[in-house]
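Deliverable D4.2, example record:
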Amino acid sequence: MAAAFPNLVVLTGDIHSSWAFDLATDPHGDYDPETGAGSVGVEFVTPAVTSSGFPTNAANAALVSNPHLRWAELTQRGYVVLDVGADRIQASWWWVEDVERPDGDAERFASAWAVYDGTRHLVEEDQPAPPSDDPPAPAPPS
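Output generated by the structure prediction step:
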C-alpha cells in the first residue's frame, strides 16, 4: 500500500475530539514513533465546534496504548485549519471556549502537526501555518 500511495493523508471528523495519527500497519511491531518508520500515511481528526467531546480526558491512556497516536485532545471544542502546499500538509487545531458569544470567546491555538512530501509520518510544529498571501475566495452562501 505504501508504494501505491506515497503521500497518503486521511481527514476524519464527527467524533467530537482531536487526534493526529501516523497510520501504521503494525503499531506495536515495526512502527517507530521516533522516526515514523512503519507508517504508511497520516490521519488528522477534527473536533466539533458546537458539541463537547468526551466527558473525561482519556487521551493519556489512548496515547500510551497506541504509539502511532501522536497527539490527542478529547474534551475541547474547536476546529482544524489545513494548510496544503506542494511540500507539506499542516493541520492546526484551534480551541473556542464559548460558541454562543459572537466573538467565540477568543479562539486559541492548540497544536499543529505536518506531513512533508515524500514522507509518511507526522512532525510536530510549534505554531500554526502563516496566513496565505492569496487565499481563495469564500464559498457563496447556500
